[in-house]
Amino acid sequence: MGTLRKAQCRRELRLAEIPAPARLAPFAVALGAEVYAPGAGTPGTPLHGPAAMALAAASGTEDDGGTELATGRFILLHDPDGSEVWGGEFRIVTYIRAELEPEMGNDEMLGTVAWTWLVEALENHKAPYRAAGGTATRVLSESFGTLSERPGSIDIELRASWTPATSDVRAHLEAWSDMVCTFAGLPPLPDGVTPLTHRRRN
């Protein structure tokens, strides 16, 4: 589990350890992640999706970096005796949620796209895995009564789990962190750019 501390995650990601579930495995560690809109003065490539929407809404305000674009959880389970269900001693369980633009939220292929983001992130980080499974869900929120003026929203939720092929799970956390940023609408890092290591919250 110490390999998680060596992971290098993107600077847009706020990563912190959170309480881990106690009943899923003898040992577990859990991390929570949040992606916020960068400030108006933050250099970078053009944003799209929720990131662009949030930055436009916050334009000219003092709290440009306060809009949450995506949130997620990364849970690493460990059973020294191994698990027939997992097919190994470790299992990674993840959750990601982000608000979408209406056009993308209504796309019938949205679930397939979300799953593709996960698979591509693992492959790009050379994180070997097996027995992967997951569910993509669209969440439509509408407001009524005293909240009727609040605009509706469409969120995408991805719940997924997989068994890492080795005990070195650093690449898996890095892949997942990139995936959270993808859900937030942030562009991929250019080739040759090294992500900054984040200090963990106490």
Per-chain topology:
Elements: E1 13-18, E2 27-36, H1 49-57, E3 68-83, E4 88-100, H2 102-105, H3 110-124, E5 129-141, E6 153-164, H4 170-183
Antiparallel strand pairs: 1-2, 2-3, 3-4, 4-6, 5-6
Helix pairs in contact: 3-4
Q: Can you describe this structure?
A:
It comes from Pseudarthrobacter polychromogenes. This is DUF3000 domain-containing protein. Helix 3 (110-124) packs antiparallel against helix 4 (170-183). Residues 40-65 and 190-202 have low confidence and may be disordered. It is built from 4 helices and 6 strands; from the N terminus they run ββαββααββα. The protein is an alpha+beta fold and 202 residues long. The protein is globular, with a radius of gyration of 18 Å.
For this entry, give a set of tags:
six-stranded antiparallel sheet, disordered C terminus, DUF3000 domain-containing protein, 202 residues, 4 helices, 21% helix
Helix fraction, binned, reads: 10-25%
Q: Pairing-aware structural class of the strands and helices?
A: alpha+beta
Using only C-alpha atoms, the radius of gyration works out to 18 Å
Order of helices and strands: EEHEEHHEEH
| Average of per-residue pLDDT values | 77
Strand order of the largest sheet: 1-2-3-4-6-5
Number of distinct beta strands: 6
**Could you tell me how far the N terminus lies from the C terminus, measured between alpha carbons in angstroms?**
18 Å
Query: Main sheet?
Result: 6 strands, antiparallel
Beta-strand level of the residues, as a percent range? 25-35%
What ranges have pLDDT less than 50 throughout 5 or more consecutive residues? 40-65, 190-202
Note the total helix count: 4
Q: Which of globular, elongated, flat, extended, rod-shaped describes the shape?
A: globular
Protein name: DUF3000 domain-containing protein
Pfam family, one: DUF3000
